[in-house]
Every structure is written in structure tokens, then in C-alpha cells.
Amino acid sequence: METTWDLTPLFPGLESLEFQRAWEGLKGRIAGLKGLLEREAPLPEVLAALDAFLEEATPLRAYLYARYSADTQDEAALAKLSELEVLFLDFQRLRPRLTRYLALKDPEEAGPYRLLVEEAKEEALHLMPEGEEVLAAELSLSGRQAWDKLHESLTSQTTAVVDGEEMPITKARNLYLHPEEEVRKKAYEAELKAWEAHEVPLAFALNGVKGEASVLNRRRGYRDDLEPTLFKNRITRKALQAMQEAVRESLPLFRRYFLLKAKALGKERLDWWDLFAPLGQGRRWTLEEARDFLVAKLAALVPGAAQVAEEAFRERWMDLLPRKGKVGGAYCMARGGGKSLILANYEESFESVSTLAHELGHAYHNFALKEVPASLRRIPMTLAETASIMNETLVVEAALKEASPEEGLLILDAYLQGAAQVVVDIHSRFLFESWVFQRRKARELSPREFKELMVRAQDEAYGEALATRHPYMWAVKGHYYGADFYNYPYTFGLLFGLAVFQEAKEDPGFAGRYEALLAESGRYRAKELALRFGFDLESVDFWRKGLQVLAGKVEELEERLTRG
């Protein structure tokens, strides 16, 4: 099996005529859109030009980022990617003008683009004068973005000393996966000591990021610092409140899981360093086994997702194996025509199979959007995880039916570990960020205050199920520095995806409607989209439906541990 992707269907190379034509074409699209806005052309012309620009930009961005991320030493690709960002800046400068143009239009005349006009009307209410918006964007390079880069640079160079060995902080954190508690505990103690040495500059960075955001939010007339993120994620405050209520109700369920795990590890309560401790033992999963398993199991409930997975392997959409110079982690990005590019760092474990299922879910979502105009393919984070959660859950359920007792325990615990992070830990992160914004309006916070707020948030989320805390999670998570309230969309995505999964299991005809839901996910706000398929996001009962899937997994874990 080929394990590297084939990028030639996009472009033969950077020097190719096809690439040069696309590059010049993109520049022309931006100039054309600018001209249409200057003469206030009819709405259909402007929307067609916007779609054409986005359509042409997709394969260019995908090709350049794929080349760079597969080989960070590819200087030519990196240089061209930087040029593309400068080119995109010309488009960004048009955004305030485009927003005001759309805001003056009648939504009834926009047809399928109605949401773009409605959102522009809302966004226009919060736009500062154009000169101020441009100034804010330019100042952010030496403000928020600079603080974010400081965090990224400082944390990437931070080291911890474990048993006399100095290692990158990421390697120390990976020791939390070690089967021996003594190793995990030493890693935890070394990590806290490492963060303490850098707490002052990191506190300045967090103060700078949240201070700038708070000032701009007030200047733009938002009622609080949460409101702009609700708009961006296309959800109502009432839907978020309903989800949060369901999350709070579920905390005893997760505390039950933590206590079960503690008992399995021979302890009364888990410590922080035990959260990722492995239970059970897995087998090797070759790539060939992973491919056959994924295609077969997805086909049972979502045939379209299985077909996309098969095509992704056959047409080499994926770069699968780790190697020097390749970025870590995994991602899926659209490349145009309903196709995707997937980067993974596959290791022969079920966790890697699950990750691949997740990314292939994103690819299925991109496939479902194939016939949708490019400007209506922007999916908010809250809905962007729907297909990936569906794929992942399907594959985990199938694996649990076939796995040995030891591997079944490993798979089930790993699944619940991930869910606990997305529900429980993210609840603590949401509380922490809410409190930081409240206090930051008055003054800067000290490292001690950040630590106290973090521990207080963890107290509320984890309760008595956890014996120790991690006061420096505000230093660990880069999301606090690069965005605001980046946390709750993950919980939303998981629980929405699980509720959809539950619906699919109960309704044999749901598969067809499911693809339609994915296809329409950029045309409607989350509330409207959900109602079209019979879901009420503002009802606590809807969120409970997703949590019921997790409750079943906790019960299954208890049964397996009792039998074992």
C-alpha cells in the first residue's frame, strides 16, 4: 500500500504552467471582487465572484500546506505559502467593505446565500469605522498575534528534568501514558516545576491576549466577551446554556468513571498523573487491516462514508506514516471537487485507527459539500466535528464487539479518556476563561491568580474524584492565546455528533438525511439546521441524548472490570 499522498492531480509542481495560471487567476479574482464592490455591482455578480475566489484558493492553499506539512524543510513551498498569506491579506482588507455591502441587501433576494446576508447585517452592527478595523488588524500583529507567538515559542523550547534527564515539555507530558505510576508522578512534578520557571512571561502573554480582546469587544458593542464567539459558531446563548446544564448534570457520571479507573489502578482516587494511564493492552493494527476494517464498519451504517474512505486509500489522498521533517498530529483539509487531503502519523495501534476514522469523517463532510457554493462551505467549529465523531464512534463500537478482553479494555478506556477531556476538562477551561475575562476588565492578573482560578475551575469540574490538580493548565493550552472560548465548541461537536449517531442507530432511514445534514451545515445557523432534522439544541434533553451514549460506555467499562 502506498503511504504518501499524490499531489499531482492538484499541480505537477510549483514551476508548472498549471500552478502559475492558478496563482495569477487568484490575484485576478481578488482584483475583480474589489472592482465589483467599488461600483456596487448586483448581488449575484458579487456572490459569484466571491465563490470563484474561494474555489480557486482552495487547491492552491491545500497544495502548498500539504507540501510544507509533509516536509517542513521544503523551503520553496514555505516561501510560496508565505506569499499566499500576503495575497490573502488583500482579500482581508476587503472584508469590512464586503460585510457592509452584504448588510444592505435583502435576505429574500439572496436565495441560498440568505445566511451570508443575515450574518453581514448582524456583523455590521459591531463593525468599528473601516479605518479603525484596519488599524486593529494591523496592530494585532504586534499585539495579540505577538503574544500568541511568544507563548508558542516559549513553550516549544521549555524543557523538564525527569530523573536527571532534560527533555522537551511535550515528551515529559507523554510520560503520563506510561504504565508505571512512579514514572507518571515524576513527569507531573517535573512539568509543574518547568512551568513555574516560565510563569511570569506566560502570564503577561495571557493578560495581553485577553486584554486586547476585551477592549475590542467593548468597542464593537458586544454585551460580553462570549457573544462574538456565539456569533462565529452560529449558536444561540440558550443552546450553550442548555448544553452546559447537561454537562453539569453529567459530572457525577464522569466521576464514577474516574473512580472505576482508580480502582482498576489499585487506588482510592485518581491523581492528575493517572488520567491517561493505560488500562488493558492492545495488539498491532497494520495499515492494511485498518483500511479493511474502516471501510467494512463504516459501510454498515453510513455507506457514503465508507465509499469516501475507500477512495481516499485508492487515490492516495493521505500521507500516513511519521518521518523526520513531517509535522505531528493529524488533519484533513478540503482540496476542491469534494476531495480532501489527510495527514496522519500512523502507528500500529487502535488509537491510530480511531484517528484515521476521525479524519476520514471530515473527508466525508467535504464530499457532502461538493455541490455547495464555496462561500457556503464555511462550517463553524460547533458543526465541523459531526461526521468525524460519527465515524469515530462507529469504529469504536465495532472494535469493542470483536476485541479481546485486554484490548477491549484499552479501547474503551481510551474512548472514555477522550470524552472526559472534552466534557469535564473543557468544562473547567470554559469556567476558567469566563472568570479571567471578568477580572481582566479591571486589571492584569498575576501568575498566582491564574493558578488559583485554574484550580478552582478544576475543583468544580472534577470534584472529589481527583485527588490532585494541575494549576498550570492555562500555560499548557495554546488555545487560550490564539482564540477566545475555543473550548466549548469541542464539547458541542462531541455531544451533537453522538446525538446524531444515536438517531442513526434508531432510524434505519437516517443515513440519507445525514448526508443532507452535512451538505447543509454551511447554509444555516446551528439551531435552524438542527430543527430541520428534528433536533432542538435549546432543549437540555437533546444534549442528554449524546451523553447517554457515554453513560452506556461507563456501564460497559464497569462490567468489563467486574468480569476481569
Note down, in words, how this protein is organized.
The chain has about 575 residues and is mainly alpha-helical. About 65% of the residues lie in helices and about 5% in strands. The chain contains 24 helices and five strands. The strands form two sheets. Strands 3-5-4 form a three-stranded mixed sheet, sandwiched between helices. A two-stranded antiparallel ribbon has the order 1-2. Strand 1 and strand 2 form a beta hairpin. Helix 1 runs parallel beside helix 3. The longest helix is centred in the last third of the chain and has 36 residues, at about 405-440. The chain is globular and about 75 Å long. The model has no long low-confidence stretch (mean pLDDT about 95).
Arithmetic mean of pLDDT: 93
- Category from helices, strands and their pairing: mainly alpha
Strand-residue proportion: under 5%
Radius of gyration: 24 Å
Keywords:
mainly alpha; 564 residues; 3-stranded mixed β-sheet; two-stranded antiparallel sheet; 24 helices; single chain
Quick description:
By secondary structure, the chain is mainly alpha-helical. Helices cover 67% and strands 4% of the residues. A three-stranded mixed beta sheet has the order 3-5-4, sandwiched between helices. Strands 1-2 form a two-stranded antiparallel ribbon.
